[in-house]
Amino acid sequence: MKKFVSRSLILLLLSVMFAPFQLAAEPAPASTTATTEIPLSPQLNPELSGQESPSSSTALPSHSTLRPPTEIVRIAIIIDDLGYNLRRGVEVARLPGALTLAVLPHSPNGIALAELGHQQGKLIMLHTPMSNLQQLPLDAGGLTDQMTQQEFVDTLYSGLDSIPHIQGVNNHMGSYLTQLPEPMSWLMDTLAREQLFFVDSRTSPDSIAWETARDLALPTQKRDIFLDNERTAEAIGTQFDQLLRIAKRRGNAIAIGHPYPETVAFLTEVLPGLAELGVELVPVTQLIPKPALSSKPVLLEGKNSALQHRTRALNK
Ligand SMILES: [Zn+2]
Predict the structure, then answer these.
(1) Ligand 1 centroid to 59 CA: how many Å?
(2) Residue 285 — very low, low, confident or very high, per pLDDT cuts 50/70/90?
(3) Structural domain boundaries, residue 94
(4) Does the residue 175 lie in any domain?
(5) In total, how many domains does the chain have?
(6) What distance in angstroms lies between residue 44's CA and the mean position of ligand 1's atoms?
(7) Which segments of the chain does DSSP mark as H helices, in order?
(8) 31-45, 139-153, 292-306: which has the minimum mean pLDDT?
(9) Across all residues in the chain, what is the average pLDDT?
(10) Cα of 29 to ligand 1 centre, how many Å?
(11) What is the CATH number of the domain that holds 257?
(12) What's the pTM value of the predicted model, to 2 decimals?
């Protein structure tokens, strides 16, 4: 573990010294490969997908000009699949720093973990199950292509109401549903009405979720990296290096991880050292451009008051 953490930190230092002098956002890289999803509950399972092609973690940027070491880049880390395993969820909620926690709807420990996470200063999202190409069964609150619009919206609202402190949503599984225009427009319409944001987990390279959200002027962003599709310290270290590399290049980057012991151990070790290296861990809302009439992107506040404005007018 030490070895990989050290490697990440050394890489980061080198990047700070040698990276090009730029902070501006580039378009998020298109995510890559197809998905293999495995059933979730009551075990915790990731969407095994979108694995970014790992590249050497020792290579320096070839186009090197000096960057002031004071420049800060920002990363967000969403931990998915929370709500079923209490002990692991508590470990995640107590990790240091501004992690974002994504809790499964109607999960037996979802309320307790969302409350604990909120208490610990974590941003809380709903991790909504959606139908997948493997036709694996969905957990409670799952959205499918078989639902009428009314069933779909009712199920979504029921999930949103089942967990406190929800400020946004990302998809659990969803490699099939996120390719379908109609359910995606129902989803984003509802989230827009509730002033919630959406993060596309990118469990399929053909997902149109992000584009649909953007077209409806919903605050939205895409996942860049899955941290722990492979549950070893070495693989997680490699993915974390890749996250930092994207952040250095683009100014920010978003990762998704899961409450595995290996992931928790890695984050426990690496998170406290980020600040002194010029990397800031922020709630994912701070990396979501707020749709605005002006051409200049405005970033959302870390803690917005969206829920205060939520209404349930449509479908009760
Ligand atoms: Zn998930």
Answers:
(1) 32
(2) very high
(3) 69-287
(4) yes
(5) 1
(6) 8
(7) 2-18, 86-93, 110-119, 149-162, 181-193, 209-215, 233-250, 261-270
(8) 31-45
(9) 79
(10) 21
(11) 3.20.20.370
(12) 0.75
